[in-house]
Amino acid sequence: MNRALVFLYDLLVLTKYRITVVAIFTGWAALAVWDLERACDWAWVWPCLLALFLLGGAANTINQILERGKDALMDRTKARRPLPAGRIPVWFAWVFAAFQLAVALAIMQGVYRSPLAAGLVLFTLIYYSFFYTLWLKPRHHLNIVIGGVPGAMGPVIAWAAATGTVEWAPVAMFAVIFLWTPPHVWALAIQVKDDYARAGIPMLPVVKGVDETTRQIFIYTVVMVAGTLALPLVSAVFARPAWVGLSLLLGAVFLLWTWRLWRHRPLMATMPLFRFSIVYIAALFAALVVDAARSRP
């Protein structure tokens, strides 16, 4: 592959672009709930989506800078990620992160004139890059529970950019993503627990074992699905057909799957559940967009 293309791909790897795309979509779905017409005005909306990508990119780049020594010990990261592999120097990664953050802040303040959105961008980066990466993740096996805040901030930040406020609807969307994060991440953590153990990262399967992790996955799934089904009782945004139908259908699948994972011996493969969880969260937020379109006069 051409060296320039390899370099550009390595920059994308620093942003953890696959994870970041999910945050962008959830942010856009929040804008569709707020005002579908404005959310489909791409000239107006693309800077917000770019800012969300750059925020995720900056936070994930700093995360990889700070964890490069641990990444070098894990089979799944030591060759793929450019810092432990030595393909990008650390100083350049710091510059890349600072540039992404500066542009994201400039968009929120300069294009949308929302100090609140800019403040939330800065809060999210500090929380993930420093509080989670430096302090929480190396110290406690429930790191991903408390550390799920940054990944759930997309709807809140997008709403704040559009309106200058934070209201119930984006907070509820935040809560859904926050509750979804532990079962999603733990399904992957079981698969790569030996890597985490080698790097000295106290993820739940390493500290408490696989059996306890599968039990926790099921418990968190129960809470998550119950939360999605309870939202129609408190907000009309979630009381529409697509959300209710998919919450019931996909929630039932998620519950059955995680219950079987917990009770099944020998252990079932967890990567299919990990992939399904991505489909689950994307489908729920797509349902919000569908419902917003159907409810237009």
CATH architecture: Orthogonal Bundle
Mean pLDDT: 95
Give the total of domains. 1
**Integer-rounded radius of gyration:** 19 Å
Can you count the beta strands? Answer: 0
CATH class: Mainly Alpha
> Helicity level, as a percent range?
over 70%
- The third-level CATH topology is Farnesyl Diphosphate Synthase
Q: How large is the count of helical segments?
A: 16
> Hey, roughly how much beta strand do the residues contain?
under 5%
Structural class: mainly alpha
Shape: globular
User: SSE order, as H and E?
Assistant: HHHHHHHHHHHHHHHH
Report the major sheet: none
Unreliable residue runs: none
| Distance between the ends | 52 Å
Gist of the model:
Helices cover about 75% and strands about 0% of the residues.
Descriptive overview:
- By secondary structure, the chain is mainly alpha-helical.
- About 75% of the residues lie in helices and about 0% in strands.
- It has a single domain (about 5-295), classed as Farnesyl Diphosphate Synthase.
- It is built from 16 helices and no strands.
- The protein is globular.
Topology overview:
Elements: H1 3-15, H2 17-34, H3 36-39, H4 42-66, H5 68-71, H6 82-85, H7 90-111, H8 115-136, H9 143-146, H10 154-163, H11 168-191, H12 193-199, H13 204-207, H14 210-230, H15 241-263, H16 271-294
Helix pairs in contact: 2-4, 2-10, 2-16, 4-7, 4-8, 7-8, 8-10, 10-11, 11-14, 11-16, 14-15, 15-16
List keywords for this structure.
16 helices; Farnesyl Diphosphate Synthase; 297 residues; mainly alpha
